[in-house]
Amino acid sequence: MSVGMQGRSLDPKRGVATAIAEAQANLERAVEELDRLPALDLHSIALAAHALNNFLTVSGGVVNLLIPILRGHPDRQVAVWLEGLSHATDLMIHTVSQLMNTSVGVETSLRLEDVDLPRLVERACAYYRRAADVKGIDVKFHAAADVPTVETDRVLVAAVLDNLLSNAVKYSPRDKRIWVDVEPERDGVACRVRDEGPGLSPAEQERLFLPGVRLGTVPSGGEPSSGYGLAIAKRFADQLGGEIACTSRPGQGATFSLWLPRIRPRT
Fold it and tell me: Which pLDDT tens digit goes with each residue over 119-136?
């Protein structure tokens, strides 16, 4: 065994710390290179960027919860590693924001199939209950008994639902409720997400689905907001032949609705 390998086996913590430092340096260089790239033209980039943004928000939130808990850990490197993870998450959120910025307006190829929307919505609710529980928020799901299947793209619908639910949790004050309902409407199916958040003014609602717009309302738990999620969600809803809308009054929460046709119209 070489001397280098012996040192690494005797001090695994130093090896991990070195690997984290190298990965962080590589990430910073990648961010710098991304700044020099022209606008990207991949069809799936909007979906991937939006998903990554939400995953990073969850990861960053967990790290930020652990930092104060483990600040007094006897091994001081634990705090160093967590701070490194927090910094790396911030850098990745910056990168993903750039990807979202360049991808708004990019058409995404559709893969149509019959989708059980209540089941898809229920799974999304189960996922976001974990983030909601941290803030004491109760997520209530209900589906009508006679909801038909819809011909749509399962992945794009999941991305829209992901945005609506993550926003409801993000902007709801602690110890409130969120109602998620799925029911037949017109010749299709509607999903409504209603919260008890601060609500939106008419002027804010007019700008709600524009890319890059950050409204005056701020996330109740300090979560990051890129300003692109709803713009991408509307783009996806339009591609699916559906509609996305918001009804709200200041101080009275907001209701976001996604309507999808039972059969997507051919273009």
Answer: 889 888 887 888 888 899
DSSP H helix total and E strand total for the chain: 8, 7
Q: What string of DSSP letters covers 40-63? A: ---TTHHHHHHHHHHHHHHHHHHH
CATH value of 112-261 in 3.40.630.10, 3.40.50.2300, 3.60.40.10, 3.30.565.10: 3.30.565.10
Is 262:187 a contact under the CB 8 Å cutoff? yes
Q: Which amino acid is it at 107? A: E
Strand pairing category for 243-248 and 254-261: antiparallel
Give span(s): CATH 3.30.565.10, the chain: 112-261
Bridging pattern class, strands 150-153 and 177-185: unpaired
- pLDDT tens profile 209-264: 887 666 656 555 555 555 567 888 888 899 899 999 999 988 888 999 999 999 88
Other CB atoms within 10 A of residue 131 CB? 21
* DSSP label at residue 176: -
In sequence order, the 6+-apart residues with CB closer than 8 A to the CB of 212 are 101, 104, 227, 228, 231
Q: pTM for the whole thing?
A: 0.61
> What does DSSP say about strands 243-248 and 112-115: parallel, antiparallel, or unpaired?
unpaired
For 174, the token pair is 């602690």
